[in-house]
């Protein structure tokens, strides 16, 4: 774990271990009818406008041009395509149910691919506008296998030692397998055996370096902890009348004081979790005002819709500034020297010590805060981020956005129902709004203007 001193260079779904039987697909199961196709297409069509794609910051577009080799037009086209694909995948995930095996984006045009364990689903996927892929294992089974590996990693000193030597574990949806990355292959094999998994469902990769946390009220700006170490602001937030920001848990503990990049008194950590997760939040004093921006050159953050595997993502931190890449895997587990962190997202974006806690953003949607990784921004590397929605949900925080929703707003009066602004909704959650029931297509924090009737990229009437 790297910590950047102030004066120096610095820095699950299943509940049981799965064996061979639990990881098999359901090729003979019944398929849904083509009825969801129209809903999926409608959600995809509405997504760019719903999610504020046109407001993507110029600095973010420039970073995409530099790091992904795109023109400005291609960068904006790609962001729009990713928004459409995310909404389409969310609708298909609901339609395919137990056959759902994940989705990802392919090629420079971000073309969507959707996997299923059932042959009869292929026509539905194709008709909705995605490339269908037939696989052996449903996503729920692979997620359960990952959870089993995490449990094995926590079983006594031997399990923790093997986890440190096999520190990265994730589900590779495109390959329909679980991946374990290890500096010691034998340790990885012991971890897989200890989890009771079918070895054919797991790919072990040997890597040269283990990830470590990257130490170091706009996202990406520097702040100092107890006047000794530096990290980066994730995203400004509010909690009632209190203003502050979210960051990485390894940056500081509850009660630690913070000063801003200008060394003015700023606030203190209210809560922090690390390991397990890598999340924290800081309440600031009255001299600081939360804004919906990431770094000085950013456009406004408009929401927190989590993008899918293959989507472009950019990071801003106080050491290296803006850098971009793509989302590699969600729901990854990483074992640092201090312990295992679960539920982080793996990216091929570079980062360096001091960037920890900084903002990950896709288009105008907040994604998460920098946790740790390998490599650097001279030679490239891998970086993991803690998704922002669990931080907002866990601490009762509201992401600071520009307040511009995708639709005309709720209109006069309150139609009633269970939907509520400020609530973090996961894909698949159901709410009522007025007399209509809706199912969530993409995880996000609800806000005024994003009521279900106004946001078909996020909600589908059921």
How far from one another are the termini? 47 Å
Q: Which structural class matches the secondary elements?
A: alpha+beta
| Count of helix runs | 8
- How many strand elements? 27
Largest sheet: 9 strands, antiparallel
The coarse silhouette is globular
**What's the mean pLDDT score?**
89
Q: Widest sheet: strand order?
A: 1-10-9-13-14-15-12-11-22
- Report helical residue fraction: 10-25%
Strand content: 25-35%
- Low-confidence segments: 5-32, 407-412
What is the gyration radius calculated from CA atoms?
Answer: 21 Å
Q: What is the gist of this entry?
A:
With 462 residues, this protein is an alpha+beta fold. Helices cover 22% and strands 32% of the residues.
Structure write-up:
With 462 residues, this protein is of the alpha+beta class. Helices cover 22% and strands 32% of the residues. The chain is built from eight helices and 27 strands. It has helices spanning 36-50, 58-68, 72-96, 122-128, 139-153, 156-165, 185-195, 388-395, and strands at 4-5, 100-106, 111-116, 131-134, 168-172, 177-182, 202-206, 212-213, 222-225, 229-232, 235-239, 242-247, 257-260, 265-273, 279-284, 312-317, 321-336, 339-347, 359-362, 365-376, 380-387, 398-399, 424-425, 430-433, 436-440, 444-445, 459-461. Strands 1-10-9-13-14-15-12-11-22 form a nine-stranded antiparallel sheet, with helices on one face. A six-stranded antiparallel β-barrel has the order 16-17-18-21-20-19, surrounded by five helices. A three-stranded mixed sheet has the order 2-3-4, with helices on one face. Helix 1 (36-50) runs parallel beside helix 4 (122-128) and helix 2 packs across helix 3 (72-96). Mean pLDDT is 89; it is low at 5-32 and 407-412.
């Amino acid at each position: 774990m790297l910590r950047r001193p102030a004066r120096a260079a610095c820095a699950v779904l299943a509940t049981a271990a799965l064996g061979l039987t639990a990881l098999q697909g359901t090729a003979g199961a019944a398929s849904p009818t083509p009825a969801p196709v129209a809903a999926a297409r409608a959600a995809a069509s509405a997504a760019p406008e719903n999610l504020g794609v046109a407001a993507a910051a110029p600095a973010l577009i420039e970073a995409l041009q530099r790091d992904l080799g795109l023109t400005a037009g291609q960068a904006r086209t790609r962001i729009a395509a990713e928004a459409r694909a995310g909404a389409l995948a969310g609708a298909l995930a609901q339609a395919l149910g137990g056959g759902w095996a994940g989705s990802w984006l392919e090629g420079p045009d971000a073309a969507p691919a959707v996997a299923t364990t059932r042959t009869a689903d292929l026509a539905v996927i194709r008709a909705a506008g995605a490339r269908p892929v037939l696989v052996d294992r449903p996503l729920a089974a692979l997620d359960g296998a990952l959870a089993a590996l995490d449990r094995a990693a926590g079983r006594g000193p031997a399990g923790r030692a093997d986890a440190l030597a096999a520190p990265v574990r994730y589900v590779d949806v495109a390959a329909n397998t679980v991946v374990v990355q290890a500096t010691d292959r034998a340790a990885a094999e012991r971890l897989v055996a200890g989890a009771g998994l079918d070895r054919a469902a797991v790919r072990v990769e040997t890597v040269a370096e283990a990830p470590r946390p990257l130490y170091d009220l706009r996202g990406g700006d520097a702040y100092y902890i107890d006047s000794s170490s530096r990290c980066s602001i994730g995203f400004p937030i509010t909690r009632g009348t209190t203003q502050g920001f979210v960051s990485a848990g390894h940056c500081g503990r509850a009660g630690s004081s913070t000063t801003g990049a200008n060394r003015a008194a700023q606030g203190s950590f209210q809560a922090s979790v690390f390991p397990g997760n890598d999340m924290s939040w800081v309440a600031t004093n009255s001299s600081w005002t939360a804004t919906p921006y990431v770094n000085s050159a950013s456009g406004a953050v408009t929401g927190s819709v989590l993008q899918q595997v293959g989507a472009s993502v950019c990071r801003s931190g106080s050491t290296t500034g803006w850098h971009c890449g793509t989302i590699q895997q969600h729901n990854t587990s990483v074992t640092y020297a201090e312990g295992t962190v679960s539920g982080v997202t793996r990216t091929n974006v570079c980062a360096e010590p001091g960037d920890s806690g900084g903002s990950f953003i896709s288009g105008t949607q907040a994604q998460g805060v920098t946790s740790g990784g390998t490599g650097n921004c001279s030679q490239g590397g891998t970086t993991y981020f803690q998704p922002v929605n669990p931080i907002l949900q866990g601490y009762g925080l509201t992401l600071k956005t520009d307040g511009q929703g995708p639709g005309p707003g709720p209109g006069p009066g309150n139609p009633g129902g269970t939907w509520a602004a400020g609530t973090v909704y996961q894909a698949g959650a159901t709410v009522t709004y007025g007399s209509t029931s809706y199912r969530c297509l993409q995880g996000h924090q609800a806000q005024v203007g994003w009521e279900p009737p106004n946001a078909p990229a996020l909600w589908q009437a059921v």
